[in-house]
């Protein structure tokens, strides 16, 4: 390896309060992307549950890279992994009976590509998927009907046994149970709690910011840009 290669430093997710999640399989104009990236959000996460390819991920990354804010790729399949992001978020679905989504695909990826993986940029996430209608829930066979106690126990497995840096409560497409999210957060000692799902109003953004460490806003970007932008200040003004 040549000495003049510069490695991207590890980014600090602890500073992330508000994150926009952009889907490579969905269209966003240059003007709207400009507004998103200059909105004051803390980071951009690129990822989606379906239709994500190497080509559309490269295209979106190249557009985001014009702006000075952290950009992370949430890896949903190996074919869409693109070099050049500041970090790579690796989901491990905790509430599935199918071990393929916990360690199986991860093991195969490391066996095949381990020599290429920039380990200093890898951030594993313990996912708890709770919307039964979500594409991710159906794909991973997630057991979504959890009580707050059950979800909290999964989160503590990630936090205290697996020592994962992120626990991600995901309702993907619907606004979730904030009492459950509060309960999950109270049981965490080390992990940062991400919440994502169904945020469409400033009030929902504030409630989510009170319950979680990091609020992820996604679908509303493609439905109502003005509403999406208002979530940034709502989260920032929440203690």
From TrEMBL:
One of the Pfam families matching this protein, by short name: PcrB
InterPro entries: GGGP/HepGP_synthase_I, GGGP/HepGP_synthase_sf, GGGP_HepGP_synthase
Top class in the EC scheme: transferase
Catalysis: reaction(s): sn-glycerol 1-phosphate + all-trans-heptaprenyl diphosphate = 3-heptaprenyl-sn-glycero-1-phosphate + diphosphate
Requisite cofactors: Mg(2+)
GO BP of this protein: glycerophospholipid biosynthetic process
Gene3D superfamilies for the chain: FMN-linked oxidoreductases
Domain of life: Bacteria
Keyword annotations: Lipid biosynthesis, Lipid metabolism, Magnesium, Metal-binding, Phospholipid biosynthesis, Phospholipid metabolism, Transferase
Pathway the protein takes part in: Membrane lipid metabolism; glycerophospholipid metabolism
Family classification: Belongs to the GGGP/HepGP synthase family. Group I subfamily.
Summary of the function given for this chain in its UniProt record: Prenyltransferase that catalyzes in vivo the transfer of the heptaprenyl moiety of heptaprenyl pyrophosphate (HepPP; 35 carbon atoms) to the C3 hydroxyl of sn-glycerol-1-phosphate (G1P), producing heptaprenylglyceryl phosphate (HepGP). This reaction is an ether-bond-formation step in the biosynthesis of archaea-type G1P-based membrane lipids found in Bacillales.
Protein name: Heptaprenylglyceryl phosphate synthase
Organism of derivation: Paenibacillus dendritiformis C454
Chain's gene name: pcrB
